[in-house]
Amino acid sequence: xxxxxxxxxxxxxxxxxxxxxxxxxxxxxxxxxxxxxxxxxxxxxxxxxxxxxxxxxxxxxxxxxxxxxxxxxxxxxxxxxxxxxxxxxxxxxxxxxxxxxxxxxxxxxxxxxxxxxxxxxxxxxxxxxxxxxxxxxxxxxxxxxxxxxxxxxxxxxxxxxxxxxxxxxxxxxxxxxxxxxxxxxxxxxxxxxxxxxxxxxxxxxxxxxxxxxxxxxxxxxxxxxxxxxxxxxxxxxxxxxxxxxxxxxxxxxxxxxxxxxxxxxxxxxxxxxxxxxxxxxxxxxxxxxxxxxxxxxxxxxxxxxxxxxxxxxxxxxxxxxxxxxxxxxxxxxxxxxxxxxxxxxxxxxxxxxxxxxxxxxxxxxxxxxxxxxxxxxxxxxxxxxxxxxxxxxxxxxxxxxxxxxxxxxxxxxxxxxxxxxxxxxxxxxxxxxxxxxxxxxxxxxxxxxxxxxxxxxxxxxxxxxxxxxxxxxxxxxxxxxxxxxxxxxxxxxxxxxxxxxxxxxxxxxxxxxxxxxxxxxxxxxxxxxxxxxxxxxxxxxxxxxxxxxxxxxx
Length: 554
Known about the structure:
Blueprint: H1 2-7, H2 13-25, E1 37-38, H3 42-45, E2 50-53, H4 54-57, H5 68-78, E3 84-90, E4 93-98, H6 100-108, H7 111-115, E5 126-132, H8 146-164, E6 168-172, H9 180-187, H10 202-213, E7 218-219, E8 238-243, H11 244-251, E9 262-266, H12 267-282, E10 287-295, H13 299-312, E11 319-326, E12 329-332, H14 340-359, H15 366-385, E13 393-396, H16 411-433, H17 454-464, H18 467-473, H19 492-510, H20 522-544
Parallel strand pairs: 5-6, 5-10, 10-11, 12-13
Antiparallel strand pairs: 1-2, 2-4, 3-4, 7-8, 8-9
């Protein structure tokens, strides 16, 4: 075990997969798809942790039969570095079982290596601007829909994840301080920049007007209304008519809506561009990625703003614009037309009612208001973010499953299981104070071979080990996306927490962690508590990316 730890101080599932793939494929580029697959189910993990199925191997070797000398070489070269306990060839393929006690010791003795966010290595300083289109134009709260709220919460979550990856992140637009919109976002634990005490970029707007007035794509003078639109329905404060189709054709731009023709430019559009440009000019990053997070209903209009900015800023080559488009939120039931504020109030009233039913008269005072607000925010975030952003989201407000700790897909269920860990350690600390248990020993004194319960390895292998890579998955597609549309796995963290809660709940209901205060049982109890410490850190870090405060009571 000590030799393995010396060779591989940090174990990575992705690095393990890459090494195993190279071992069977040999040098040269990989062809024909993956060979090795990580097991996930509790049933399969009883006998193996990795499998190279016979069907996949048959693409590399006759009848899928790997030469025995290759398996022996794999064992001799990778046993210590990859913590391999055994490697066997069967009728199903090649199976690998890892050294579980050694990995338990490695991971649980070095929790920060596995439970804290991993910054992506990059030689270049990268700036990301998240432009939340739903908040542009100083819209009033009454016009803020649940679909808009979905994009706002997505931006809030994505900003945290990207900062953890080492990016410089700005969220726009700035909102005037102490407005109803700002106050509402605070209720949802959304952190959003307030407006700078400045002249609102009016000077830069004037410069943009001058540039646009001299552009070959701008039509000055009296504007004709687009076909099918009466002249008296033209938007107010139109200052320019810009020919976008001509620009797209000349620049050979791809991915834009073919119906784009002309844009009637208002001053508000120039203010929005001025704010974005101001951020770009303030940063000295080598590249700047602007992600317009927009609902599907507004993506056409946002493409116009994108092109208008390109016309105004042809010299800013380091700016790349992408569009992250969210599917609509469709609400069924009698409250199908409620606003974002009404939706929040409705869910909060449900959470209040559920709390009173469970705890009775104890539900009163500032502390309970805070608990209910936090649980409401958690429920709403999971409800709106656990579905892939590009997919439509159906909400049935006649159901209250999202505020029940029994519904395994809800934010309340995740919070309940996180609170179980807080309660567990609270009981342990009180028992130490009472003299029932000794103080927690040094990790080096623990024998993790005592962790024999199947659910314990499942929790380490499926959740603690891959956790940092899960956080990185959200932003993996930023650098590889083609075209103007961007698809990001923004649902990854929510789904991870839900699955973790399901497996942790199953384990917690089955295993008595705080055992009898008998000396011969203490090692197993402390080994399990160290595993629970790791899970608690994973819960807290993941919830932190959603701006959800971990609960400290059931």
